[in-house]
Design goal:
By secondary structure, the chain is α/β, with parallel strands linked by helices. The chain folds into 3 domains: 109 residues, 3-Layer(aba) Sandwich (Rossmann fold), CATH 3.40.50; 132 residues, NadA-like (Rossmann fold), CATH 3.40.50.10800; 80 residues, NadA-like (Rossmann fold). The chain is 40% helix and 15% strand. It contains 14 helices and 13 strands. Helix 12 links the parallel strand 12 and strand 13. Helix 3 runs parallel beside helix 4 and helix 6 crosses helix 14. The longest helix has 17 residues. The chain is globular and about 65 Å long. The two termini are 35 Å apart. The chain binds 1,3-dihydroxyacetonephosphate and iron/sulfur cluster. The site of iron/sulfur cluster has 12 residues, from loops. 1,3-dihydroxyacetonephosphate binds next to loops.
Length: 371
């Protein structure tokens, strides 16, 4: 077990009881979706819990519910809203639950980078957006022959995209892009980094050693195959190779499993890498007595430790860190959402302008068809 417990706030028992009452009264009018990083007091009310891909598929397949209450972050609710039916509404209990990584690329910045790369290399730059991005970014990808991807299908989508054009511009997670690229056999010389904050993004130095896009002798005879946006998840970037080594010393025989948003050197030192659903499946399939160190958000790691008491499940990091955005969904604001619905008020609906939704839907539907 990890030593960390999430304290229940004052009055939580009463709030949980009222959520159960409201939820039962709303019946099939509502479906509650919950991401694995949600705290226990929230995810226990989810009708379906999953990783980003599973939740997107659930949202696309719900026909009956009039409202989808999304316990996760804004880009997930936006994705659900784009894939849902016209008669459905998607509600996010706290509209400020964003994702700091998704904020690292805008549609405008992506268009500028794509224009610059197309001017440099000619046609055939395929834009691919990690689903942790805004609808505008996905729309640009959909409208320019690209697709969206999640952590569980990034390798398949990149393989597809590299088959569509000569090179891929991957936004916004440098680490997921590099980890997926390596899985496809791309070397560091085949990848380059694009830092949108640099004075000249084409001159971005890559710590893995590839020459910047704009310099003579840039990667590959014909330029890089994969151009990685310099974005990251502040939660996953903190895991380190030293932590992997230290946990192996403390727990001989431990299996280290990390999320692909971790830096490439961490992913390479770990034993296994995959989405939140993949991580759960590994521990679930483990033998009693087996030992696991998990490099992802701590709500999920703590839950696994509690659900599999006959296995040793420890957090890879040396301090406690939550995703502060996922933590914005609380029992209190979930209760507010449900009780407002009971009173006939749909609060905090996540809506996407139809012209943006059309392009983003293209990118998401391509993703769902490929993976
Ligand atoms: P998954 O799709 O693996 O659940 O990841 C979502 C996420 O935001 C990880 O930080
Ligand atoms: Fe975004 Fe990182 Fe939180 Fe996932 S864990 S929602 S990538 S900030």
């Amino acid at each position: 077990m990890t030593e960390v417990a999430i304290p229940a706030g004052p009055g939580t028992a009463d709030i949980l009881r009222r959520i159960a009452v409201a939820r039962a009264a709303l019946d099939s009018q509502v479906v509650i979706l919950g991401h694995h990083y949600q705290r226990d007091e929230v995810i226990r009310f989810a009708d379906h819990r999953g990783d980003s891909l599973q939740l997107a598929r659930w949202a696309a397949s719900q026909r009956q519910a009039r409202q989808i209450v999304f316990c996760g972050v804004h880009f997930m609710a936006e994705t659900a809203s784009i894939l849902a039916q016209d008669h459905q509404q998607v509600l996010l209990p706290d509209p400020t639950a964003g994702c700091t990584m998704a904020d690292m690329v805008t549609g405008e910045a992506l268009a500028e980078a794509w224009d610059a790369l197309t001017a440099r290399y000619g046609p055939g730059v395929i834009p691919v957006a990690y689903v942790n991005s805004t609808a505008e970014v996905k729309a640009f990808c959909g409208e320019h022959g690209g697709a969206a991807c999640t952590s569980s299908n990034a390798v398949a989508i990149l393989r597809w995209a590299l088959g569509q054009g000569r090179r891929v511009l991957f936004v916004p997670d440098e680490h997921l892009g590099r980890n997926a690229g390596r899985r496809l056999g791309l070397g560091d010389g085949d990848m380059a980094v694009w830092d949108p904050r640099a004075e000249d993004p084409a001159e971005t130095e890559d710590p893995a050693g590839a020459a910047p896009v704009g310099r003579p002798g840039a990667p590959g005879a014909d330029g890089p195959r994969l151009i990685l946006w310099r974005g990251f998840c502040a939660v996953h970037r903190r895991f380190s190779v030293e932590q992997v080594r230290a946990v192996r010393e403390r727990h001989p025989g431990v299996v280290v499993v990390v999320h692909p948003e971790c830096r490439a050197e961490v992913a390479q030192t770990a034993d296994l890498m995959g989405s939140t659903d993949f991580i759960i499946r590994q521990v679930a399939a483990g033998e009693p007595g087996s030992s696991w160190a998990i490099g992802t958000e701590i709500n999920l790691v703590d839950r696994l430790a509690r659900e599999y008491p006959d296995r040793e499940v420890v957090f890879l990091g040396d301090r406690v860190w939550y995703c502060p955005m996922m933590m914005r969904i609380t029992p209190a604001n979930l209760l507010g959402t449900l009780e407002n619905l009971q009173a006939g008020r749909e609060v905090n609906e996540v809506k996407v302008a139809p012209e943006v939704a059309a392009g983003a839907r293209l990118a998401l539907e391509r993703m769902l068809a490929i993976s």
